[in-house]
Design the sequence.
């Protein structure tokens, strides 16, 4: 009788172990499938095919909703170049966000706003550099140049928003000009 009880207990423990293992494997499978879906969506939205870059974007929480916000990070960098953000620079960046299609209630718009409440972390700028390199790798030269011109135009607009003094000085500070030039080099060739 005691042997039967121990055998029943052993089978119950084995069944419980197998159930836990199956649950763990199913959870891992769901995570992998979610990552594949996130990769596919980001790849389609950005034209990036570099799996390592897509892994990095997904790990940083970048989704199709926040991809546009990531593309606007350089504008926030320019605005913060002098260590503070002017209200007119903020308005210029939010206007660029709306022009890019971000709605005020969207996650992407909130990400842009967070870059305006405090300076974006350096890792976000580095992520943008990798992102833009990945995008540029898949674009024809004419489209890459158009994208570059548009970003540099927007960055200059932000820099000029708070610059100058009664028309006597350049509207773009030396720090802002340096950042804009650094952005231009991120586009390669």
Sequence:
């Amino acid at each position: 009788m005691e042997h039967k009880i121990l055998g029943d207990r052993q089978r119950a423990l084995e069944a419980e172990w197998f159930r836990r293992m199956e649950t763990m494997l199913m959870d891992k499978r769901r995570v992998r499938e979610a990552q594949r879906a996130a990769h596919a969506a980001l790849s389609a939205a950005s034209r990036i095919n570099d799996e390592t870059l897509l892994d990095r974007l997904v790990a940083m929480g970048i989704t199709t909703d926040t991809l546009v916000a990531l593309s606007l990070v350089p504008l926030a960098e320019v605005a913060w170049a002098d260590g503070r953000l002017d209200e007119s620079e903020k308005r210029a960046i939010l206007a660029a966000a709306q022009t890019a299609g971000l709605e005020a209630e969207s996650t992407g718009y909130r990400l842009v706003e967070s870059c305006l409440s405090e300076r974006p972390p350096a890792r976000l700028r580095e992520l943008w550099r990798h992102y833009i390199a990945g995008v540029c790798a898949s674009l024809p030269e004419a489209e890459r140049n158009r994208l570059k011109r548009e970003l540099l135009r927007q960055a200059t607009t932000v820099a000029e928003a708070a610059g100058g003094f009664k028309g006597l000085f350049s509207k773009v500070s030396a720090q802002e000009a340096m950042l804009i030039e650094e952005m231009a080099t991120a586009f390669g060739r």
